[in-house]
Amino acid sequence: MLEVRAPLTATVVDISVWPGKMVNKGEELMQLEAMKVYIPIQAPCTGRIVAVHISSGQVVQKESIMLVIECANS
């Protein structure tokens, strides 16, 4: 399992995934916003979303776990 962490302190603008959803490497999982700049967060591997620990509008701290992916090749 792979934890997707926040690259910086930011606000969650949009979440495109939910537990159980299959994703492909590079697929956009969510968007964060910091200082009026939108940051797309992409899937680091092909696999299944196991858990989503954030919600839209939430402020996430740098390095906090946002979601967990079970990679298909693990």
UniProtKB/TrEMBL annotation:
Gene3D superfamilies, sorted: 2.40.50.100
Alphabetical list of PROSITE patterns matching this protein: BIOTIN (PS00188), BIOTINYL_LIPOYL (PS50968)
TM stretches of this protein: none
Protein name listed in UniProt: Acetyl-CoA carboxylase biotin carboxyl carrier protein subunit
Lineage start: Bacteria, Pseudomonadati, Thermodesulfobacteriota, Thermodesulfobacteria, Thermodesulfobacteriales
